[in-house]
Amino acid sequence: MNALYRWPATDATELHRARFARVEETMRAQRVDALLLVGPDHIRYATDFRAHLTNESEWFAALVWRDGTAQVFLPYIDETITAPYPELPWVTEVIPVASWSAATANPKTWVRAVGGAIAAGGSRLRIGVDSVDHGLLSGLAEHTSGVEFVAVGTELHRIRREKHPIEVTLLDAVSRVNAGAMEAALAAARVGGTDHDVLAAAMAFQQAAGVEFVTHSVCNLRNGTGDWFAGGRRFAEGDPFFFDIGCYGPGGYASDAGRTGFVGEPREEHLEAYEHLRTAHRIAQELAVPGARASTLLAACNEYLEGHGLGRTPYAIGHGVGLRICELPTLFSPGLMDEDVTLIEGEVIALEPETTVVVDGIETVLKIEDNFVVEAHGLRQLTVVPGADEFVAH
């Protein structure tokens, strides 16, 4: 289907108010006067400004003050511009930094621009930072005497766990588009075709639907666990495979999902392993209610898989989804996450059990991944294939 998705209309003003209320509460709790952010997701959460995702946190920065105003540092301008965005009146100015290069590649230029804005805000400031490079922070400390920099990245991740209803609406929409992309990918798999063909079909669907950005795109055909990248391998009759794809929809909210498929008639052993994987996926879904401990989901899933002679999921069975493809909560094993949290109503998670089965001495990896919102009595699946009436031809 080559058509634009009918993305939902949402109240951007209400979403900004709700998100910044949490940000401001964190700033008060951490006793900071401003935040210096370089993560595109943190920048968007606090300011609504859409930073490019091409190079993650290396190109952009934002200085967000307690009163809600912000200055954004951009690589595609050559002079400071005041009141640049009428739709974002709290962004008071945009300030140039070195173009198309990591901040750490031009540290003096970056420190001069960002440090100047901090110094203009006053002395004896306390600034919260997310993931700013240590060398850049050292340079800022020298440039801004009397300013204290404190880490607040973990707190900023935590306040994003419980989603506002508008966030759930946006996550629902992008998850439906990603589900449609998965159907397109499955339909593209054929004997003689390649793993690249499968991923190309998924990306074509996502782009035609109007997503903001296509993220990861991997396909495991005759690869081991963790080695999931497409390599131009051709499908043969009976081949099992899986792919994992993601995208960001309007508003910057993400979907991360995957499917197992078969080309032609599958081997009985592969099909049986896949059915067990589906059962393990359902077990995790049934356990994922508000108050459930994160580690119990993986433990129950792996107990079932290993009880049927199959390989266990060797990584987290799931994670939060929001303005990042992967965010809190982490759903792993104790000792491999800072905190074995309990699920809360209103968060959006991905559940992604994996298993391996050995047939004729060859190990095959199978996987399923879907997105869900945690509601009062359990999960509601978001990765549901949209109907034709949800698109408009273009």
UniProtKB/TrEMBL annotation:
InterPro entries: Creatin/AminoP/Spt16_N, Creatinase/aminopeptidase-like, Creatinase_N, Pept_M24, Peptidase_M24B. Residues 172-375 form the Peptidase M24 domain. CDD domains: APP_MetAP. Coiled coil: none annotated. Residues 19-160 form the Creatinase N-terminal domain. SUPFAM superfamilies: Creatinase/aminopeptidase, Creatinase/prolidase N-terminal domain. This is M24 family metallopeptidase.
